[in-house]
Design goal:
- InterPro entries: Restrct_endonuc_typeI_TRD, Restrct_endonuc_typeI_TRD_sf, Type-I_RS_S_subunit.
- GO terms for molecular function: DNA binding; endonuclease activity.
- The protein is α+β, with helices and mostly antiparallel strands.
- Among the domains are: 142 residues, Adenine-n6-DNA-methyltransferase TaqI, Chain A, domain 2; 145 residues, DNA methylase specificity domains (Adenine-n6-DNA-methyltransferase TaqI, Chain A, domain 2, Alpha-Beta Complex), CATH 3.90.220.20.
- The protein is 36% helix and 22% strand.
- Strand 19 and strand 20 form a beta hairpin.
- The two termini are 31 Å apart.
């Protein structure tokens, strides 16, 4: 932030995280600036309360936004539903803040709306810049979570939110800061979007390289044969086209609900199956009794096995590797154990190929939550080269994938740096650490020069 000037004079705000604020700024709790409106939910079984014309915002709606504005919601309610549950409509240009699971997601309404009990609406009492306070609250997530209370989940009460103190300038300066941040964050967001697009393209190319290698091989001059599967096309004539079940055992997880403890044996569920290797760093823990029940029936994961997700987040696959402690399968996953002439790493690449995605998409069931049956996984069509050729393909893929992964990781780090800069810029501007009162939009500056 070196290129921006500081204010001439500061004073102690008396708030530890905020520190000093410009001398002419005020320090006021939110309740003096905004009316705080609690949300509510109509009775779920009453058809007359639902699918109406009223936007009904939930934390889930806020968490999915890519913009600061919200005008639509996943669920809507009727006037009867609104009247039944005791909440109120709030006008456009109102800040909606998630106050549970999680605390801190927010947006500004573009039209009249209401919320469920997981959100609170901040309706301005005076001539304030809503956008300024949107930016202010966007960098206050840590502080707001510290004010949350609860054992099952954190919840921010109206009293705690209302007492949250902000250092604020006058309305004109609020607008100036908001305009400055609109311009500067838009530039950063454009750069982030470009990096996200690059990551998407790199992943697509990586996917194409994997899919081609595991269905066509490395030799462009090899004799080919018709696979007998329309969407698969031709494959090397010495490769085997078969069903997955002829090479592996697929065992579903044990359908019991284990108790969780602060210490114990980790469970691999969907969250642990996201990369090339099973990651237990954030796994839930159970005790020896439940562990023994969960591994019953040939369900004990062994090195070289693959964990495959089959519910909610469907089709992710990760390898059980040597660095893992003993663990059991959690929910929504199955265990794939190789029984003949197949490399674990090769199968892992195949399970991440486009060929499997085609079959997965046709086999998935469920409207709200997607899932795939274990029998459908067993009946995946696979193409298997001789074991020696599998090893050659793996060596070639490892080199190519490493290059793509390196480029992807670099782009991810660039995004993280830009996001950190974005947050730091917002924080500096809304808390008065930099003075942007003399900032001019580049277009306005050009107009003045031309005059």
């Amino acid at each position: 932030m070196a290129k921006y000037q500081k204010y001439a004079e500061y004073k102690d705000s008396g708030v530890e995280w905020l520190g000093e604020i410009p001398r002419h700024w005020d320090l006021k709790p939110i309740k003096y600036l905004f009316g705080i409106i609690n949300g509510s939910t109509p009775k779920s079984g009453e058809e007359a309360f639902w699918d109406g014309e009223i936007t009904w915002i939930t934390p889930s709606d806020l968490s999915k936004l890519r913009s600061h504005v919200i005008g639509e919601s996943i669920r809507t309610i009727t006037k009867k539903g609104l009247d039944s549950c005791g909440t109120s409509l709030v006008p456009s240009d109102t800040i909606i803040l998630s106050c549970r699971a999680p605390i801190g997601s927010l947006a500004v309404t573009s039209k009249e709306a209401c919320t469920n009990q997981g959100c609170k609406s901040l309706v301005k009492k005076y001539d304030l810049s809503t956008k300024f306070f949107y930016y202010y609250l966007s960098i206050s997530t840590k502080q707001l979570n510290n004010l949350g209370r609860g054992t099952t989940f954190l919840e921010l009460s109206s009293d705690e939110l209302g007492s949250y103190a902000l250092g604020i300038p006058n309305a004109e300066e609020q607008t100036q800061i908001a305009n400055f941040l609109d311009h500067e964050t838009a530039k950063i967001d454009t750069l982030i979007a470009k990096q996200e697009k690059l990551i998407e393209l790199l992943k697509e190319k990586r996917q194409a390289v994997i899919s081609h290698a595991v269905t066509k091989g490395l030799n462009p001059d090899v004799n080919m044969k018709d696979s007998g599967v329309e969407w698969l096309g031709q494959v090397p004539e010495h490769w085997t086209v078969s069903k997955l079940k002829h090479f592996v055992n697929v065992v579903d997880c044990k359908h019991i609900t284990a108790e969780f403890f602060d210490e114990g044996i980790p469970l691999a569920s969907i969250g642990e199956v996201k990369g090339w290797k099973v990651n237990l760093s954030n796994a839930k823990l159970t005790n020896e009794k439940y562990y023994q029940e969960l591994i019953d029936g040939n369900r004990k994961p062994q090195v070289g096995d693959i964990i495959y997700t089959r519910n909610a987040t469907v089709g992710e696959a990760s390898l059980v590797h040597t660095e893992l402690p003993k663990f059991a399968l959690g929910q929504d996953v199955c265990l794939i154990h190789i029984i003949q002439k197949l490399s674990s790493e090769y199968l892992l690449h195949f399970l991440k190929s486009e060929i499997i995605k085609i079959q997965l998409n046709s086999a998935m069931v469920g409207s709200t939550f997607k899932r795939i049956n274990v029998d459908d996984i067993r009946n995946y069509v696979i193409v298997i080269p001789p074991i020696e050729e599998q090893e050659c393909i793996l060596k070639d893929l490892d080199q190519k994938i490493e290059k793509y992964d390196s480029l992807i990781n670099f782009a991810v780090k660039q995004i993280q740096l830009m996001q950190e800069r974005r947050t730091a810029l917002i924080s500096s501007a809304v808390t008065g650490k930099i003075d942007v009162r003399n900032w001019q939009h580049p277009n306005e500056a050009k107009t003045e020069l031309s005059l």
